[in-house]
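User: Now give one protein:

AI:
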Amino acid sequence: MNIWHTFLYIIVPILIPLAIGALLHRKFKFELGGFSKMLMYYYIPALAFVKVYEAELTASLIGTIFVFLAAQFILIVLLGHGVSRMLRHPKPLATSFSNSIALTNNGNIGIPVNAMAFKHDPFAMSIQMMVVTFELFATFTFGLLNASRAASGLKKSLLQFVKMPVLYAIIAGTLLRLAHIDMPEPLLTPLSTIADGMLSFALLTIGAQMASTMLKLHTITVLWSSLLRLAAAPVIAWLLLELMHIEGVTAQALFIASAIPTSRNSASLALEYNNEPGFAAQAVLFSTLLSSVTLTIIIQLSGTLFPA
């Protein structure tokens, strides 16, 4: 599979619903908060449960994945801190810059990319669900604490994290799979139906969100943020995957997930705590636009570096 084939058959089918979502939002002005809640509390938990339940996961593999994700997160945060100091960022910008490279949109964008790249393979998607869970935890701990610099905010955010249904969907799916318990068909069928609708709804939502953000590149910091998020992070992931001897589809899925663009939550946190919200919104939009090129390359490389 050459790079043009990857772009045409994986990235273009993702870009088209994004464009439709942007156009529809321009005309109808959707209430995007409601869209986000639909994804977080309806679509993603159903998808997480079904794909984890259908996949062949072991406890040792789950542990390996989370060790990798933690190591990757720490290294990218340290790298971002070093670059921020080199660029002499003031404290509010340094905080927003750190979140822009550490927090990724592995839910709304990562899930559709994984689905297209692996042709809806349950095993690959179950790995993506582990990534999503880790990203949620990172957002409600490091992301909020970094933005607020207040320990009182951390307790509140942890409570918010444990209320996330995707966490319990993954736990339930994992326990049923490891215990080899069959899910009754009348329960599994509606969950599968909901899960099947997640891909198009997530892409529509991202397109609408992009249409509501103005692109005004006026700082080199946005370019640095995108460079670290879309290029440096995959390099770190590749080194860790080689070091930990992770191979095949597992390595491919984690490698692709490492190159997902900046999370919208980083912009939301910057706006809430007034940490250069203009930069944060631009970082999200620019990295999302640029990822159509970089993800094409990363997906192509994943099969070469980690043959299944």
